[in-house]
Design brief:
Shape: globular
Number of strands: 4
Distance between the termini: 28 Å
Helix content: 40-55%
CATH architecture: 2-Layer Sandwich
Number of helices: 7
Number of domains: 1
CATH topology: Nucleotidyltransferase, domain 5
Structural class: mainly alpha
Length: 219
């Protein structure tokens, strides 16, 4: 997701995925290549393999380039790229490490190019509205990927922005991010519930504008 952050709990969504999330796409391609991975996700294993590959070996298409309307937006799409990888590898010998490394490197290059392109579009949209955005914060599990960090840092430098990344060991399960967001609200003495969509407001809870939240697992 691309979000303009105005303050703690104050966001404006500029773009989001139309289908698969980027981390999910990395995981699925890693699984397609037969890579095992743990808490760090498929992106970490795929990145290691990609270091030995030729990133130009397979011309995977950059997503959302056909439609002018989608090309000009800030949304992401990774479903088509994931499918292109699957079709391209159907006739490949993925037991051959060099072949698998070329697939990993080519996929990684295109996936990150798509991210960089969309980040640039979001920045242009903010600039057109007269809004100065001093920094780019990249977080989530996929932010662990070193190639992604380098490419977004390079873009940020060219755009005159600071690129900020969490330490790689914190780019894991989003439970850490949820907890950190809670700490920030606590420090700001902000105990408000998030706004409710119209279809939910008043459907549950003792008061019209309350919703009862329940953890999926006992806490």
């Amino acid at each position: 997701m691309l979000a303009l952050v105005r303050g703690i709990g104050t966001f404006e969504r500029l773009g989001t995925t139309l289908d698969d999330a980027v981390g999910e796409a990395f995981d699925k391609v890693a699984r397609l290549l037969g890579l095992g991975y743990g808490a760090a996700g498929g992106g970490a294993a795929l990145e290691v393999l990609a270091r030995d590959g030729d990133a130009q070996a397979i011309p995977f298409p950059v997503p959302l380039q056909r439609s002018a309307r989608r090309r000009a937006g800030c949304d992401f799409s990774f479903s088509g790229l994931k499918t292109a990888v699957k079709y391209a590898t159907d006739t490949m010998d993925l037991d051959d490490r060099q072949t698998a490394a070329n697939v990993a490197a080519s996929f990684q290059r295109v996936a990150v190019a798509h991210l960089v392109q969309r980040v640039g579009m979001a920045a242009d949209r903010c600039k057109a509205r007269g809004m100065a955005v001093p920094r780019l914060v990249v977080c989530g599990g996929v932010a662990r990927n070193g190639y992604l960090r380098r490419e977004l840092s390079r873009w940020a430098d060219a755009a005159g922005m600071d690129a900020v990344f969490p330490a790689p060991e914190l780019c894991t399960d989003n439970g850490i991010m949820v907890a950190w967001a809670g700490v920030e609200r606590l420090v700001a003495n902000d105990f408000t519930l998030p706004p409710l969509p119209d279809e939910v407001r008043g459907t549950r809870g003792p008061n019209r504008d309350e919703v009862q939240y329940h953890p999926r697992w006992p806490l």
